[in-house]
Amino acid sequence: METAIVVVIGADKPGIVAGISSKLAERNVNIIDITQTVLRGIFTMIMVVDLDTGNVGIGKLREELQAKGKELGVEVLVYHGEVFKFMERV
Amino acid sequence: MKYTADEMGEVINMLSWEDLDIRSVTLSVNTLYAVSDSPERSLEKLSYLQGPLTRFSEAVDHVQEKLGVKIVTKRVAVSPVQYFLEPIPDTEYALRLGRKLDEIAFKSRIDYIGGFSAYADRGLGRGSYVLLLSLHEVMNSTQRLSGMLNSASTQEGLNVDAVKMFVDEIMKMSPYASSRVAIMANSPQDSPFVPSAHHGRGMPNASINIAVSGPGAIVGAIRRSRPSTFQELYEVVKKASFKVTRLGELVGRTVSEELGVQMGSVDLSLAPSPAVRDSVAEIVESMGISKIGGHGSVTALALLMDAVKKGGSMATNLVGGLSSAFIPVSEDSIMANRMKEGYLEVNDLLAMSAVCNSGIDMVGVSRDEGHDKVTALILDVLSMGLILNKILGVRVIPLDGKPGDEVDLGGLLGKVVIARLKPVDVRDFTSKTGFMPTPVKRLETG
Predict the structure, then answer these.
(1) Using alpha carbons only, what angle is made at residue B215 by residues B213 and B216, rounded to the nearest 5 degrees?
(2) Do B246 and A59 touch (CB under 8 A)?
């Protein structure tokens, strides 16, 4: 399975999770894991998503999510799952 | 595979806020197929490079997009131009070759093309002689070409005549041109670092070499862990270095798969960039030496370098290049500031060269200091490489101005500070000619 890690950071407000996840749904990208916290008003969400189910390449997906993030006033980072596998597991 | 939030946080932190990125992906390619006794024929054959280089450029862009990891520069290393000049030892031809390579790099969106290089450890051959004669003109008239002169090796000795010719040439170069040439001892065959990158003998036709950059990630790890013993400090650096190198390994493997070119090596070096938070000097200062150049700097650097090598060697099977900590002065904003403030002197850099291997790198010298002092400075570094049997290089930037002045070269090159050289006459020493014989270390190897 080809995965990507989506990180969303910004000032907390309603609609961030909905905005990002609806964009993923639009592209048929499945969310495998999701963790979200608000620390002192800073919203942080990390998602592991499955690229295989989607109908979009990671580059395009990153572009679209970042555009969505801009609308929502949050920062979005998208890394390939391999990066985490390589750096954290031997 | 499941990751903990801490693990994910760590990687995200390194990549997004600690400037962990890939400094360069370098395609090393054998270009000896284009050697010919007709200039037109060899230039025409070199043109074939355009296709593979463009594909390489696209592959690197694609991998950057896929992984989401920043790749700062794309580089190509070609066979030393010395060999091209053997059948046609002519400076006009050398100039055309240099410009051709520069043009190919420009057209295929390659940031640097390395290989305007020669080996002259024992003496100057036809090719290396002409290459040296044409060096200033070639470098002054190109933008992306880089070159290296290996004029010392533990196996062959130190060629002082070649060093003098090299100094004559760099004195005639613009600052931008001289930042693209280095003089070295024991140059490796597979360095992904400009200016020493070239495709060496004994290598396959093509390979992918990686250089990582991650001083910010090491500084972050030290600051977070606040170690109280040297062993803890060592452990922190080792672990962070493993992760930094691992990222290089991943990028290397991905590019190599994409392109169908075998993976060469990962250089385990920590290299700075003028960006804030991307400084090797900051690592030393985060260890507790408040200003690099202070007593203890050499120990801190030695500890750093050893821990980097141990951590990194677990992360890749293919260690290559110069593998150490780079301390180029202008490319490291803190190094440049400490030099300007007077905490760091040329002799400190020399002492540090004993434990890392960039030697004296990106240091400005006043043209008024004269050829002899610069020659002697280079000889000091090269003989250390010779005796200690390690890779060392010198990249000095001759500038008009007084010690303490600084010139901003911009981009990755940063601000060059003119260093103060010792006010001592060395002409009687440097006026001697010839080469220095091989050290006794040579005898140990048979």
Answers:
(1) 110
(2) no
